[in-house]
Write a structure and sequence with these properties.
The protein is of the alpha+beta class and 204 residues long. The protein contains 1 helix and 11 strands, in the order αβββββββββββ. It has a 5-stranded antiparallel sheet with strand order 6-8-2-1-11, with no helix packed on it. β9 and β10 (187-192) form a beta hairpin. The chain is elongated, with a radius of gyration of 32 Å.
Length: 204
């Protein structure tokens, strides 16, 4: 009697199962690859946005840096005045978060010049001669301020910072003040105290 059974159907079914398995594996692999691609893209976008924020939040000096001495016969500076503004296209910056440091050619160093609870109140910054560890700084004047008084330096505004000087800020001393905002690059200010100190003088 002739055998009417054949294994062709089973072979076709096996091939279909293998094909389906390949499709499922390929789909899973594609999902993983696409997920990794999306994650990489998001990371790159975050890096670009951070870089733009860093670049657009920089300060610049406006005009001269002035040295002020309050003593009757001054032998040192009491404080300096420097006008700062945002660079072109810069975003508003909270100066209460800024760190100011001081060094000079005599070896004096203060990594964090203090400020009061309110940077808009100068107190003794403008009146007393300070030692190296007791320096303070404040915002002594705001030009073109828009809206209510706050700690945000905004576009088109110019703020005058008054920064106390230590006892080492005497004649012919090179001083360096670094302004480090919370976001953006450090703005260094390097000047030399002139050979003769008067009440008010520009520093170069």
């Amino acid at each position: 009697m002739k055998n009417i059974y054949t294994e062709d159907a089973f072979t076709g079914l096996e091939a279909a199962i293998v094909l389906i398995a390949f499709v499922v594996v390929a789909a899973v692999f594609s999902y993983v690859v696409l997920g990794a691609g999306f994650f990489t893209t998001q990371t790159a976008q975050a890096t670009v946005h951070t870089g733009v924020a860093q670049a657009s939040s920089s300060l610049e000096i406006v005009g001269n840096v002035m040295g002020v001495a309050v003593a009757g016969t001054p032998t040192r500076l009491t404080y300096i005045n420097t006008s700062v503004a945002l660079t072109a296209g810069g975003t508003a910056m909270d100066l209460s978060q800024m760190v100011i440091s001081y060094t000079d050619s005599s070896g004096a160093r203060n990594p964090n010049v203090a400020t009061g609870a309110n940077i808009n109140t100068c107190g003794t910054t403008l009146t007393d001669d300070k030692l190296i560890g007791a320096q303070t700084w404040c915002v002594s004047q705001k030009i073109n301020e828009a809206g209510t008084t706050n700690n945000l330096l905004e576009p088109n505004e110019i703020w005058i910072l008054s920064i106390g000087m230590p006892e080492t800020s005497t004649v012919n001393t090179k001083i360096t003040v670094n302004l480090q905002p919370a976001v953006g690059a450090v703005l260094p200010i390097t000047r030399t105290v002139p050979g003769g100190i008067v009440t008010i003088q520009p520093l170069y």
